[in-house]
Specification:
By secondary structure, this protein is mostly helical. The chain has 2 helices and no strands. Helix 1 packs antiparallel against helix 2. The radius of gyration is 18 Å and the shape is rod-shaped.
């Protein structure tokens, strides 16, 4: 695998971690609101950030698949 493949795989992994942390933040916020007896309110920017992070992760993964597919075709495997 060449440099673009490694970079895309690294970015994809970082985006997975970022998406997981945003989802944990969402659950923590909801739990905090429930524990304090308030109505659960999720900030819209958090939902947008989660969706954008997951979409970016999917796009990066697709790019990685494309980059590695080209590498295997060039090497004759």
């Amino acid at each position: 695998m060449k440099a673009p493949g490694h970079s895309l795989l690294l970015v994809s992994g970082l985006l997975k971690v970022g998406g997981a942390l945003l989802i944990l933040l969402l659950l923590a916020k909801a739990g905090w609101d429930l524990a304090s007896g308030r109505q659960v309110e999720i900030p819209p920017i958090l939902l947008i950030a989660i969706g954008a992070t997951l979409a970016a992760q999917l796009a990066t993964w697709a790019g990685w698949r494309y980059a590695t597919r080209r590498d295997t075709e060039e090497s004759g495997a």
